[in-house]
TrEMBL record:
<dbReference type="GO" id="GO:0043842">
    <property type="term" value="F:Kdo transferase activity"/>
</dbReference>
<comment type="pathway">
    <text>Bacterial outer membrane biogenesis; LPS core biosynthesis.</text>
</comment>
<dbReference type="GO" id="GO:0005886">
    <property type="term" value="C:plasma membrane"/>
</dbReference>
<dbReference type="InterPro" id="IPR038107">
    <property type="entry name" value="Glycos_transf_N_sf"/>
</dbReference>
<comment type="similarity">
    <text>Belongs to the glycosyltransferase group 1 family.</text>
</comment>
<dbReference type="GO" id="GO:0009245">
    <property type="term" value="P:lipid A biosynthetic process"/>
</dbReference>
<dbReference type="Pfam" id="PF04413">
    <property type="entry name" value="Glycos_transf_N"/>
</dbReference>
<keyword id="KW-0448">Lipopolysaccharide biosynthesis</keyword>
<dbReference type="GO" id="GO:0009244">
    <property type="term" value="P:lipopolysaccharide core region biosynthetic process"/>
</dbReference>
<protein>
    <recommendedName>
        <fullName>3-deoxy-D-manno-octulosonic acid transferase</fullName>
        <ecNumber>2.4.99.12</ecNumber>
    </recommendedName>
</protein>
<keyword id="KW-0472">Membrane</keyword>
<comment type="function">
    <text>Involved in lipopolysaccharide (LPS) biosynthesis. Catalyzes the transfer of 3-deoxy-D-manno-octulosonate (Kdo) residue(s) from CMP-Kdo to lipid IV(A), the tetraacyldisaccharide-1,4'-bisphosphate precursor of lipid A.</text>
</comment>
<dbReference type="InterPro" id="IPR007507">
    <property type="entry name" value="Glycos_transf_N"/>
</dbReference>
<keyword id="KW-0808">Transferase</keyword>
<dbReference type="InterPro" id="IPR039901">
    <property type="entry name" value="Kdotransferase"/>
</dbReference>
<keyword id="KW-1003">Cell membrane</keyword>
<feature type="domain" description="3-deoxy-D-manno-octulosonic-acid transferase N-terminal">
    <location>
        <begin position="20"/>
        <end position="181"/>
    </location>
</feature>
Length: 397
């Protein structure tokens, strides 16, 4: 009874939310698996699961997420439907998935209620804590408890998450601590011939990278490089500016204020033995710079608006990570890296300079990078287990 009242109040409070109407491509023939990723961070894990379903089972995957995901064969990318009864019915009428997997703990009441009415098998994976759509805060008696009864399995990342779901009303038999899922590789591509050529030029020079550096952090980065040059006079700083249009003025500033030799990628200049700062103003080449730089500072995380690039890109390619107190959309990722002692946190420009100087010791940078790589490569058994559950449920076991 409480669930019905909560659902009614929820639908009434959102009856004016008509949302944005999105064009839907035709449904592919055959069996269809639906995966939902409410955030960019969980999307990588769900994409690895999608890859297995597509490559190993031959089933297309409907993938709903607000994250910006590159198209790929077999993956049908769609924005999440507006959570109203009419839109939920329209969405499920069109796609008719055979199974649905939600993640992290996001509950979409209208959509889950419609799934229950159709007896659609629904699982919650990589579960952290249950929550109704964050933009739909309100008091809905019994709603969370009722919605959690929809899930056949609630697979959590750890025991505290399991307790949160049990306390919120999930069936004890449905909740299982499974751990974190494997993530789709964050390793970015590169041209090996290009890497080899630049590596020969650099020879044994120490190198560090400022990835997607915003204007607000230029002064701190220059100061850190100035301090580190006292420890390693051959040190090269590679800067990939957040805004490539700033490359020219940034180069002029560094040359005028510091007297350093600056080279620019867009001018087809090379980082020769005299170059102290190399401005790589082509944002499509991160895979090259992560491979060449043993240390990466994640731009935007110190005094910008939040970390701009995914830190797992650097971790997957063996670069030790420095980051500030503003994780942006990658808070969970930095939490994992911090817990594994796989990244170095800095709280101020002074801390950045000190941490950089410390990591110029190759063995310290290597330990950090190895721990970070391990974070990017765990969870394969968890993803395999979930993949097996999909098989069992779709085959009627």
């Amino acid at each position: 009874m409480a669930y019905s009242l909560g659902l009614t109040l929820y639908n009434l409070s959102n009856r004016r939310d008509l949302g944005q109407v999105h064009d839907r491509p035709p449904r592919p023939a055959g069996r269809l698996v639906w995966l939902h990723a409410p955030t960019a961070e969980i999307a990588r894990s769900m994409l690895e699961l999608a890859r297995r379903v597509i490559d190993e089972d031959g089933h297309p995957v409907l993938f709903t997420t607000p994250a910006d995901i590159a198209p790929r064969q077999g993956l049908i990318l769609q924005p999440p439907p507006t959570d109203t009864p009419a839109e939920a019915r329209s969405f499920l009428d069109h796609w008719q998935p055979e199974i649905a997997l939600f993640s992290e703990g996001e509950l979409r009441p209208a959509l889950l209620h419609e799934a229950r009415e159709r007896a659609l098998p629904v699982l919650m994976v990589a579960a952290r804590t249950p929550y109704i759509l964050r933009e739909r805060d309100g008091w809905y008696p019994g709603l969370t408890r009722g919605l959690l009864g929809t899930f056949r399995h609630v697979l959590t990342i750890d025991e505290p998450a399991a307790r949160a779901f049990r306390k919120a009303g999930a069936a004890l038999s449905a909740v299982e601590v499974l751990g974190k899922m494997e993530e789709e590789s964050a390793a970015l591509p590169h041209l090996e011939a290009e890497r080899e050529a630049i590596a020969r030029q650099l020879a044994t020079r120490p190198v560090w990278l400022a990835a997607s550096l915003p204007e607000a952090e230029e002064t701190a980065t220059i100061a850190a490089h100035r301090a580190a040059l006292r420890l390693a006079h051959r040190l090269l700083l590679i800067i990939v500016p957040e805004d490539p249009a700033r490359a020219e003025s940034l180069a002029a500033r560094i040359e005028a204020d510091e007297g350093w030799t600056v080279a620019r990628r867009s001018e087809e200049q090379e980082p020769d033995a005299e170059t102290e700062v190399y401005i790589a103003d082509n944002p499509a080449e991160f895979g090259l710079w992560y491979r060449l730089a043993p240390i990466t500072f994640m731009g935007g995380s110190l005094s910008g608006q939040g970390c701009i690039r995914d830190p797992l890109e650097a971790a997957a390619l063996g670069s030790a990570i420095l980051y500030g107190p503003r994780p942006g959309m990658f808070g969970t990722t930095f939490g994992r890296l911090g817990a594994a002692r796989a990244a170095r946190a800095v709280g101020s420009p002074t801390d950045l300079a000190e941490a950089l100087g410390d990591l110029l010791s190759p063995d310290r940078a290597a330990r950090l990078a190895q721990a970070a790589w391990a974070v990017t490569s765990d969870g394969a058994e968890v993803t395999e287990h979930i993949h097996g559950l999909i098989h069992h449920i779709m085959d009627g076991d």
